[in-house]
């Protein structure tokens, strides 16, 4: 495993504890990306969202790519009190990590319906302390975004056949009904939120450690109406 980006620096320190069940592995190349998640926060309070593989935030890439942000940041509207944004569980599943960050907590949830998929929500001010194994239901109120210190962000990890893992866009995993709420905000396609690997590769970013250097030639954000 190539330990690039903040996610992999952490992941490489831990052995894969997957039990080897076939349902715990998903090949996105042959099986595609299922649409099974719901909103993880109050979309009405969000003004713009970063694109998958953009230069928003910091390097967060998997073992197949490097120097790109393979998650989404949700930037609140200027009129919003950031610490009042409610955070929900986007799936029914169990907590697989609950870790304190420099701002708030990271909550990681393994999906019941698609156990190869784990969703990571960052910078949460939780209602309570969650422990590994806690069961959550889709739409369950978990807490609030931490506040003005940073944006809210979410990543989706897939346990692929290599056992090294892949990162995919959360927007791609949304149900069609959930994505309709984005259409109502002026977005016509899920692809608007995604920079393809081939396009990013021919418009590469430069990194110093996990920090992006200035000079992204591609659009970073999608503005919501």
Describe the structure.
Helix content is 13%, strand content 28%. The chain is of the alpha+beta class. It starts with a helix and ends with a strand. The strands form two sheets. Strands 1, 2, 3, 4, 5, 6, 7, 8, 9, 10 and 13 form an eleven-stranded antiparallel sheet that branches. A two-stranded antiparallel sheet has the order 11-12. The chain has five helices and 13 strands. It has one domain: Glucose Permease (Domain IIA), CATH 2.70.70.10. The longest helix is centred in the last third of the chain and has 8 residues, at 176-183. A hairpin with a 7-residue loop joins strand 9 (152-158) and strand 10. The chain has helices spanning 5-11, 28-31, 170-173, 176-183, 197-202, and strands spanning 46-50, 72-76, 86-88, 93-100, 105-111, 117-126, 135-136, 141-145, 152-158, 166-168, 207-208, 211-212, 221-223.
């Amino acid at each position: 495993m190539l330990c690039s980006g903040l996610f992999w620096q952490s992941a490489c320190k831990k052995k894969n504890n997957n039990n080897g069940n076939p349902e715990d592995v998903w090949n996105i190349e042959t099986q595609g990306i299922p649409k099974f998640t719901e909103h993880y926060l109050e979309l009405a309070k969000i003004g713009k969202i970063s694109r998958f593989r953009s230069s928003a935030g910091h390097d967060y890439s998997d073992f197949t790519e490097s120097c790109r942000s393979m998650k989404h940041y949700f930037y609140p509207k200027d009129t919003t009190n950031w610490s009042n944004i409610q955070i929900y569980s986007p799936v029914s599943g169990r907590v697989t990590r609950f870790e304190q960050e420099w701002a708030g907590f990271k909550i990681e949830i393994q999906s019941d319906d698609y156990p190869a998929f784990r969703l990571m929500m960052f910078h949460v001010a939780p209602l309570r302390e969650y422990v590994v194994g806690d069961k959550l239901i889709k739409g369950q109120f978990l807490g609030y975004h931490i506040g003005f210190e940073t944006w809210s962000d979410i990543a989706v990890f897939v346990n692929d056949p290599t056992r090294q893992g892949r990162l995919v866009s959360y927007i791609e995993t949304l149900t069609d009904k959930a994505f309709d709420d984005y259409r109502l905000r002026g977005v016509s396609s899920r692809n608007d939120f995604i920079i393809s690997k081939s396009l990013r590769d021919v418009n590469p970013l430069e990194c110093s450690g996990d920090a992006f250097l200035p000079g992204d030639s591609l659009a970073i954000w999608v503005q919501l109406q």
